[in-house]
Amino acid sequence: MKSYKKIARVLSAAALATAGSVGIAAAPAQAAQSFDVCVPGYCSWSYTQGAITWHNRTAGVTGSVVDVGPGSTTAFFEAFAGSTKIDSQTRTADDETSLGSPRGFNFTIGDTDLVGGINRIKITVCFTDSAGQSCSSPVNYNK
Question: pTM surpassing 0.85?
């Protein structure tokens, strides 16, 4: 019996040593969350689309803003931790189309020093021309 216990201890020690030398695997990256937000009545020529990749405390946002014709289109990105606004970014396009060259973007939003990080991004798109401004309803994307 003693030999079996000794073998079990040796195997357990070897397994622990191997696990320690390999280290703990990092959590796999989350799949990107797609977004597509447009201004009602202007969806063919005033919108933003792309993806959000959630990180530990921040998020990466990639995509484009499209604006066709007179006026301009602005996408507003707001990052929240619970109900507290942490960060914001805007991207504007003026006569940049999906067929030609949309206004591309790639940025990080959030606060790398914020314990717990952000857990929601609110996106609003507004089209502005000589008649005024029309905006989409805010769309929330959660971690």
Answer: no
